[in-house]
Design brief:
Elements (H helix, E strand, L loop, with lengths): L1 H7 L26 E7 L8 H11 E10 L5 H10 L14 H11 L1 H4 L3 H4 L1 H6 L2 H13 L1 H5 L4 E5 L5 H10 L5 E6 L2 H10 L6 E5 L15 E7 L8 H11 E10 L5 H10 L24 H12 L18 H6 L3
Parallel strand pairs: 1-2, 3-4, 3-6, 4-5, 6-7
């Protein structure tokens, strides 16, 4: 770095560059009480011995001199990395002084369990062990709309039901006892598992459905009093077609309640990595990670306008920032990769 800096940016009168470890226990004498001002931006948070770094800075300053520093106090990503470092399965991939980002990408790219965005379709049981995030968000929706959900009876449809555990355990008990629910998912493996594990005669059944289909089965047209979908529609490449199908499936004056993710910072990182020669080979299809409203400046406004264009009357539409933390690194990455 210093060699490059001197060759490219040095100015003999005003600017020069030298090698210095700010954490050194043997500060060169030429630096002691030498500077009127010391600054550092986006660097000192990498110090293992921050006290020694500041002691050295103090020694290098002249009396009454000043220091201006900018460092990162904390970041959620590093909390995740701490857990990974303590897990024997991942610790070997996070050695000291190594590019963590490269290691994680290689680790998950080699492991199909994490690399395949459709991995849960192949293992419904594993999905039920790793869907804490979905359960947490569905629980929040149920709490917020508890009184309204209790009044819902008739025929209901769930879009993106996965293996069916959330419908059976959380959604069905929240509805009127007379409600009948059909859970749908694009994955046949998920639906087969759901029918075997969670179906209830005359109360809950499951069927394969691609909500983006351009050939909606006639058996679904104007069939449902209520349609809901939680943590699923953001995976749609054609969100307009999905909403058009939902509109067609609802009976007159039917109701839709949906929750999906507008954007997430982790996908910005994926997108940048996909265009970086060092990481591109590990992200084979970036379109899988670009959600319908990922780049929207005002997702609430855009969604409301889209729904009204399709024909919906929008009674409630909100855009909220949420936070989710998971101590289990398997579950954390399963939610995104």
């Amino acid at each position: 770095m210093i060699k490059y800096a001197n060759e490219t940016f040095s100015d003999k009168k005003q600017l020069q560059f030298e090698i210095l470890d700010i954490e050194t226990k043997n500060l060169p004498k030429k630096y002691i009480s030498e500077f009127d001002h010391i600054f550092s931006f986006q660097t000192l948070h990498w110090c293992r011995d921050i006290r020694k770094a500041f002691e050295n800075i103090y020694q290098m300053l002249k009396p009454n001199a000043t220091m201006l520093v900018y460092i990162i106090a904390s970041h959620d990503l590093f909390e995740v990395l701490k857990f990974l470092e303590q897990d024997v399965r991942f610790a070997q991939y996070i050695p000291v002084n190594y590019n963590i980002h490269v290691k994680l990408l290689k680790r998950y790219a080699r492991n199909k369990t994490y690399n395949d965005t459709n991995k849960h379709s192949h293992n419904p049981f594993k999905y039920t062990l790793n869907n804490n995030l979905q359960r947490e968000k569905v629980s929040a929706v149920i709490d917020e709309f508890e009184e309204y959900l209790k009044s819902i009876s008739g025929k209901c449809l769930d879009i993106g039901c996965g293996p069916g555990d959330i419908i059976k355990d959380m959604i069905l008990p929240a509805l009127d006892p007379n409600a009948v629910v059909i859970g749908t998912d694009v994955s046949k493996n998920m639906i087969d598992y759901a029918n075997k594990k969670y179906s209830v005669p005359k109360k809950l059944e499951f069927d394969v459905l691609d909500i983006q289909t351009k050939n909606l089965p006639t058996k679904y047209t104007s069939e449902f009093d209520f349609i809901f979908s939680f943590h699923a529609l953001h995976w749609c490449n054609d969100i307009k077609q999905a909403f058009e199908n939902i509109y067609r499936m609802l009976q007159p004056n039917g109701t839709m309640l949906i929750l999906f993710v507008a954007s997430h910072n982790i996908f910005k990182a994926f997108e940048k990595s996909a265009h970086d020669a060092r990481f591109a080979q590990y992200i084979t299809d970036i379109n899988k990670y670009i959600w319908p409203f990922q780049k929207s400046v005002n997702p609430r406004k855009e969604l409301k306008e889209l729904l009204e264009t399709v024909g919906f009357t929008v009674n409630h539409c909100s855009h909220r920032e949420t936070f989710h933390f998971d101590e289990n690194p398997d579950r954390f990455f399963c939610n995104f990769l």
